[in-house]
Amino acid sequence: MITCGVLLIGRFFYKGPYTAKEWGICVITNIINTIITYVGFWLWKHGIIKIAMGISWGILLDFFCSLWLWTCDVCFSYRYSQTFLYKAVHHLHHEAVDPKPIDLFVLHPVETFGFGSLWLLLLIVYPFNIYAIVIYLTINVIFGLAGHLGIEPLPERILRMPLIKYLGTSTFHHNHHQDIQHNFGFYTSIWDRLFKTYK
After folding, report:
1. Are 161 and 137 in contact (CB under 8 A)?
2. For 118-147, what is each residue's pLDDT tens digit?
3. Contacts of 46 (CB under 8 A, 6+ apart)
4. SS (H, E, C) 115-173
5. Residue limits of the Fatty acid hydroxylase domain (predicted)?
């Protein structure tokens, strides 16, 4: 369902065709994500994963914690890009030098399974609030779609605004696809600026 929505929105920006290979990998990615979601549901039903359901200030804390955990990706991504695993796994996603919306879902099955398993592990260790999870996943899809549009939807004057200029914009992620040694961040460029991998 989310994939269909992303691809429909993406069609507004990208008019070209998708290849059979891209569609095939997209389907596999979504099957794996569905399996991970079902496993998470099963773990929740059996009390292994606990999810907070109340409304409190904890929602913001949980949201920022999950965002922070996933924005530490610059150190990981840089080290990862130097390894055999990158060449064998993440390289598939970077076949798209000029990304388009479907490339958000063009991931190696090992990578899809790895990210999903990491989420489940975090949920087993800490009882995140359900609203924080939904907000985080929504923002993740928005940034994922924006990063793979192939165009910059934000006007230049907005991109120069104090807080916006530190976000991982479409142009920022597009540059990463063109030069895999720079712009490792996804939500923000702050870590890249600190570690001098910003371009």
Report:
1. no
2. 889 989 999 999 999 999 889 888 888 888
3. none
4. HHHHHHHHHHHCCCEHHHHHHHHHHHHHHHHHHCCCCCCCCHHHHCCCCHHHECCHHHH
5. 83-197
